[in-house]
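Issue 218. Parser rejects a valid record. Input:
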Amino acid sequence: MKNTFKRRLMLAAITCAIAGAPSGAQASLWEKDAAEEPADTPIIRWWDDGLAGTLHLLQSVTNLNKNNIIDTNGTYPENVACDADTAGARTTEGNCNDLDQTRMGSEGMRFGRNVPLNSAYADEAMLMEPNPRMISRELMTRDDIKEVDFLSYWAAAWIQFMTHDWFSHRDDAGAPHEVPLDADDPLASELGGSMAIAKTEVDPTWTPYENTPKAYTNRLTHWWDGSQLYGSDQAVQDSLRTFEGGKLIIEPSGRLAVNPETGLPVTGFSDNWWLGLQMFHELFVKEHNAIAEMLAAKHPSWTDQQLFNKARLINAAIIAKIHTVDWTPAILKTTNTKLALNLDWEVVVGGDKNLRDTPYSLTEEFVAVYRMHPLIRDSVDMVDYQSGKMIKAVSTTDQAFQKAPGVLDSLGNENVYYSFGMTHPGQLTPHNYPKFLQELRMPDGRVLDMAALDILRDRERGVPRYNEFRRQLKMPPINDFTDITPDRALAEKMREVYNNDVELIDTVVGQLAEGYRPDGFGFSDTTFRIFTVMAPRRFQSDRFYTTDFNEQVYTKEGMAWIKDTNFRSVILRHEPELGKKMALVGNPFFPWDTDSCDWRIQDKLKCDYRRLKLRFGRD
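Output the parser choked on:
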């Protein structure tokens, strides 16, 4: 698929797959700029408008790629030196991915923006208006969980595993924000009149003389490089390695080593630790080591460093592939989305690098749309993987922080893996926020309401409020609370909370409240617009997913390993006892009691055989 003509043909096929119509049809619709939409147009349900609606979406994406990828650096940082070893390996800090601007995408670089800079100034006077804690209590609080019945709980754990690879801001050490607490607030008796939330640290190099909004930096690399496993600084990475055979440290029990000072696992990034992260980190440390063993057998003369570098490169690509062809088309559950994303992996990955004339970074708006805490449950029913009988319910509080490894030790990997497969996550809607996260008790003694924090973080960092956010994405703003959702009770509650002013709606609240979505979409259309820009950009900007995604850099056997691996195969490589229970599980992000066996077209014959075996009662 290296031929340019073939790539263009495949891109046309992606368009046709999404549009469901021959390429080239009604091409004049592409020429209409989304900015020409009347300001009072209600939410455009492009998904209900056939080819015309799809072309509207594709034109919107074209405009966003042209106008909404914005660098925040006043003066771009000076290059660091790159040596021969970096040509075929990722560096710990993320330097030397781009060989012209060698600091691009590295740890400590600024977040970019998906809205013009003149729209990204925080309104300091309105940080507490309306009160974030009040909004949390009135619009976020969960009574009975509303579930996504077409997803397994693995989907909720996965996205946090991903965001821990992508972004994390630094907290400021100075005076915190003080979020007022009402007299009847259950936290008031404990915390007094306010809840302290640390401010975000502003980039120390930023000054008002730049005449730009405050800028913030990433604690992690901006690349899709598995930094949650490998760390983003050398000291952390060194603490994770055996320095033998290119492997990472893992205990004989299959557990991660534990830091005796914190009681948390030793890994690249362990913030906000819980059971779901414990399982994914263990899985992909084991996957790294399996890759290293394979490479050592193929290249017996390679050093520990060579084996480590290549194993990391391959492992990170597997993670990116799983997100692209397994997780995303599961949470955006449509046939066309699945086809488009599989073609995206085949076309964009291994294609030409394209920075779109802007240095690569993740963005504050990208961070904002991945505030997906309602996916998390307040408890999980743990069942026996062989009999299906209930063992016990485990609250998420009892899975969190230092308690996570103990759940696996006491219940066993197979039972917990199976229980996650048989459990649904929460819907991304209002009134569905995990209660324990509204009174989260941190290991250091702080008490936080994560819903209030989500709201405050967007305000503080200059993410526009919902209606302005839509305007800057060239999406029509809403005129009334009833425009956003068909749920009239929710619309009226939002009207009350936001003082009948749609311009005050917070972006995180608006995204959750959007009740008009394509069938099968687990998140909102507004969220989807940022996704359509940033998802391919992460690939197109990274030489290890474009010009260097080849056998010369990854090795022939490494490319074969990536091709043959999906989420199902990773689980079964390291938890083979689950093979019988996963016989018809092609995509583990779907419920394990449903038949997703032929998720990959190439597995259809194998799946027909498995179905026959199960039908006649044979293992």
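Fixed in the parser; the record now loads. Confidence is low (pLDDT under 50) at residues 1-41.
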